[in-house]
Amino acid sequence: xxxxxxxxxxxxxxxxxxxxxxxxxxxxxxxxxxxxxxxxxxxxxxxxxxxxxxxxxxxxxxxxxxxxxxxxxxxxxxxxxxxxxxxxxxxxxxxxxxxxxxxxxxxxxxxxxxxxxxxxxxxxxxxxxxxxxxxxxxxxxxxxxxxxxxxxxxxxxxxxxxxxxxxxxxxxxxxxxxxxxxxxxxxxxxxxxxxxxxxxxxxxxxxxxxxxxxxxxxxxxxxxxxxxxxxxxxxxxxxxxxxxxxxxxxxxxxxxxxxxxxxxxxxxxxxxxxxxxxxxxxxxxxxxxxxxxxxxxxxxxxxxxxxxxxxxxxxxxxxxxxxxxxxxxxxxxxxxxxxxxxxxxxxxxxxxxxxxxxxxxxxxxxxxxxxxxxxxxxxxxxxxxxxxxxxxxxxxxxxxxxxxxxxxxxxxxxxxxxxxxxxxxxxxxxxxxxxxxxxxxxxxxxxxxxxxxxxxxxxxxxxxxxxxxxxxxxxxxxxxxxxxxxxxxxxxxxxxxxxxxxxxxxxxxxxxxxxxxxxxxxxxxxxxxxxxxxxxxxxxxxxxxxxxxxxxxxxxxxxxxxxxxxxxxxxxxxxxxxxxxxxxxxxxxxxxxxxxxxxxxxxxxxxxxxxxxxxxxxxxxxxxxxxxxxxxxxxxxxxxxxxxxxxxxxxx
Length: 652
What we know:
The chain is α+β, with helices and mostly antiparallel strands.
C-alpha cells in the first residue's frame, strides 16, 4: 500500500512539476501571443479627443480667427432603458429643465427608437454656459456627500471645437472659413489648412481580467497658429471705404450695387507684405452660407442647389487674385521702365491723337493730340501715342522679355488659393504683331490680376526689387514658440535703382500735376498712375478704371491699388477719377494711422495760407491732410477707346 501511495504521490509531483514548467514556458515564449488573444476577447471602448485648430492673428496680435470649446449632448439610451423605471423620468425631467429647446417628446422618442444606442447626439455644439446647469445638477451633493440626483443617468457631454471669427465680415476674402472636419474653404484657412490643423488624440479602454477598466490616453496635438501681415485697422479702412463707394453709386435699375467689382490692395512695397485686401463681396465668416446680404430671402428660396453654390462661389472668390482684366494705363510705367533700362527711348515723341498701326486707327485719350511729349510728360498726360512710339523703339524682343521679368503671365504664388493663371492672356515674341505690341504698351490687349500688377509695381518704386507677395509673417505653436519665420527676401531685381528713381520721379509729377492729381493728399509727397481700360467688345463702352499710388516718394512705405470694374455711373463718367477719389479717401486715413508725416508744404483751402511741415511728434495743424475734403479737380477722362473696327476675337 505504501509503495502504491508513493507511486501516486510521485506521479502527482511529476505532473505538477511538468505543469509549472509548461506555464513558465508559455509565459516566456508564448505569453505575448496569448495575452493578445485574451485581450481581444475583452470589451474595449475608445473615444476621440479633438485637437484645437490654430488661431489666426493680425500683425499686432489681434485674434482674427480662433476655435472655442463647444459640447454635444450625448444620450446613452441603452443604459437608461436597462433600468427605465429608475432612470428614465428623472433624466428626462433634468434635460427638459436645463435645456430650453429640448422637449420631453423628443427625448422619449430617442429612447424608444434608439433603445440600444450608446451614442445618440441630442444637441450639437453648445457653448459651455449652456451645459453648466446640467453638470451642476449631476454633481450636486447633500451635506453627507451623497448625490442629490443619483438617478439622472445616461447623459454625457462630448467636447468639440467651433471656429469663430470675432469680426464677422472683416477680411473675409483673406481669411476664408472652415467647414465640417476642420476643412478650410478659401483664404488662409484653405492655404494653410495642414498647418492650422493638429492631430486628434484618443482614449483607449478595456476591461482587464479582474473586470477593472484600464485606460490609455494619447493626447491630441493642437495646430499651429499664423501671425499675418494684415493690420486690422488698415483692413477696416479698406472695407469701410469700399462699402461707402458701393452705397454712393448704388443704382437698383442697373445692378443694385456700386459696381460689378471693386477691389483694393494695400501693401508694403519694400517687402511684399499685404497689409489689407478686400473687394465689395464680403460675407459673414460665421455664416458663410447666407445669401441674404445680396439676395432677398424670396430670391434665395428659388435657387436650385447648383445655382445656390454658383452664387456662393461668386461671393467667396477673391477679386484681387482670381479675376483678370486689362490694366490700362497703370501698365505705362512698365513700358517706360523697360525703355529706360534698355536705353532705347528718344527724348521726345509726337502725339497727334491717333496712330495708324497694322491697318487700325489707335487713338490717344486726347483726340486732338498732346503735341511734343517728353518721357515724363507722356506719363503725366497718359499719352497712348507716345507710349506706342516707345514700344516700337524698344522692339518686341525686349518688350516681352521685360514683361516676363515683371512677372506678367506668371503666378505670384501668393499664399492664398485660387490665383488665376494669365500665361494664356498675354502675348509673346512668337505670336505678337505691331497692333498687339502697340496696344500692350499702354495696358490693353493683355490681362493681369491685381496682386500681379501691385507686386510688379512695387519693384518699380522700391529700387527695382521684386518680392513675393504674402500674408503670413510667422508660424507659431500653441505655446507661442516660433515654428517658421517667413523671409522677406527679394526674388529678383527687375530694374536698376537709377531707373527706379527716374520712374518714381515721373509718377510723382503724375500725381502732383498730371492725370492722378485728384488722388493727391495735400502735404504728402505721392506718386501713382491712373488707368482706364475698355472691356471685351469695345462697342459696349464698359470700363475697368483704376489707380495705383504710393507714399512718400523718397522711401515708399505704403502702396494702394484700387480697381473698379463697371461702375454704376453714366457712360461719360466712366473715368479713372472714380478710382482716384476712392484711393484718396483711403490714403487720407492710412497715412496718419501709419505715422507717415506730411513732407511737403500745403495750402489750406479756407484762407489759402501755406502750412509749414509739422515736426515728428507734433500735432498736425488745422487743414492737414486727414481733415481735407475729397478732391475732384476735374481730372481729364482717360478713356482709351481702341482700334476702330477690331472685333473681340482679335484679342487674347
